[in-house]
């Protein structure tokens, strides 16, 4: 089981962050994400604060002083498809381990950004929320 990860920040809304967030290839923020390359697989460990039937991912990105939605690709939006070691639904108090893989588009500018990542249930209740810093870098290939 995952026992350590990077230090993330809580969201300002008071919803607790995951107990552990690990991003492949990143030991501290900002995490480098190569534009145009699938990578940045994130593993999150969090507790169900209430009974949950389904999980849905969403995020916002802030860069250069502008915050904008960063829609999750439809094939990645359903968090239940990315749960490890169990499956939806969950009962209050259950430990949830799920993953998300990010891939900045090739046209994405080379900037640093703050990602605010959200996990919702079927009633749009926020299950967990956290912020982490990324740096979009060019491919060296």
Structure description:
Its main location: secreted. Residues 8-134 form the MD-2-related lipid-recognition domain. Keywords: Secreted. Helix content is 3%, strand content 43%. A hairpin with a 2-residue loop joins strand 5 and strand 6 (66-69). The chain contains one helix and nine strands; from the N terminus they run E-E-E-E-E-E-H-E-E-E. The chain has one helix at residues 74-77, and strands at residues 9-10, 20-23, 31-34, 39-47, 56-63, 66-69, 95-102, 112-120, 126-137. The mean pLDDT is 90. Strands 1, 3, 5, 6, 8 and 9 form a six-stranded mixed beta sheet that branches. Strands 2-4-7 form a three-stranded antiparallel beta sheet, with no helix packed on it. The radius of gyration is 15 Å and the shape is globular. It is mainly beta and 141 residues long. The protein has one domain (9-137): Immunoglobulin-like.
Compact overview of the structure:
With 141 residues, the protein is mainly beta. It is built from one helix and nine strands.
């Amino acid at each position: 089981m995952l026992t350590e990860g990077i230090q993330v920040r809580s969201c300002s809304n008071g919803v607790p962050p995951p107990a552990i967030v690990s991003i492949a290839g990143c030991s501290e923020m900002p995490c480098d994400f190569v534009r145009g390359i699938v990578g940045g697989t994130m593993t999150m460990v969090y507790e169900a604060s209430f009974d949950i039937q389904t999980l849905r991912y969403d995020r916002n990105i802030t860069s250069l002083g502008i915050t904008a939605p960063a829609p999750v690709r439809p094939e990645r939006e359903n968090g239940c498809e990315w749960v490890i070691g169990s499956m939806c639904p969950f009962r209050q108090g259950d430990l949830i381990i799920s993953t998300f893989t990010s891939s900045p588009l090739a046209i994405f500018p080379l900037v640093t950004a703050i990602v605010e990542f959200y996990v919702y249930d079927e009633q749009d209740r926020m299950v967990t929320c956290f912020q982490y810093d990324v740096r979009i870098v060019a491919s060296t290939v």
